[in-house]
Design a protein that fits this description.
The chain is mainly α and 105 residues long. It has 2 domains: 34 residues; 54 residues, no CATH class. Helix content is 65%, strand content 0%. It is built from 4 helices and no strands. The longest helix is centred in the N-terminal third of the chain and has 32 residues.
Length: 105
């Protein structure tokens, strides 16, 4: 009888260990599947690297406030299709910058 009791305890212990490992593995898999938050500033660095040369109208390697404002004003005008002097989020998120309108202006 004692041998049978030990056998039952052994089986119960193994079952508890398997269940615990299964729960831990499931929790680890769920944590791995959650996307990590992205650094939005870092994501925009490549865009800025392409944008600054477009703003540099005199090609001196520097972007003046005047060059910056002229570029942004032209971009605003291009995006303001209804010519109402306002942009909504939809217009801004669907826009793509175009170099051809500003280079050399």
């Amino acid at each position: 009888m004692r041998k049978r009791t030990n056998y039952v305890w052994f089986i119960a212990t193994i079952a508890v260990l398997v269940a615990s490992l299964s729960l831990l593995a499931n929790a680890a898999a769920q944590k791995a599947s959650v996307p990590k938050p992205q650094n939005k500033l870092a994501m925009g660095e490549d865009d800025v690297r392409h944008l600054l040369p477009l703003m540099d109208a005199d090609k001196n390697g520097m972007v003046s406030k005047q060059e910056f404002m002229k570029y942004m004003e032209a971009e605003f005008e291009r995006l303001d299709k209804k010519k109402i002097g306002q942009l909504n989020v939809k217009e801004l998120t669907q826009s793509t910058l175009s170099a051809t309108h500003y280079v050399g202006k």
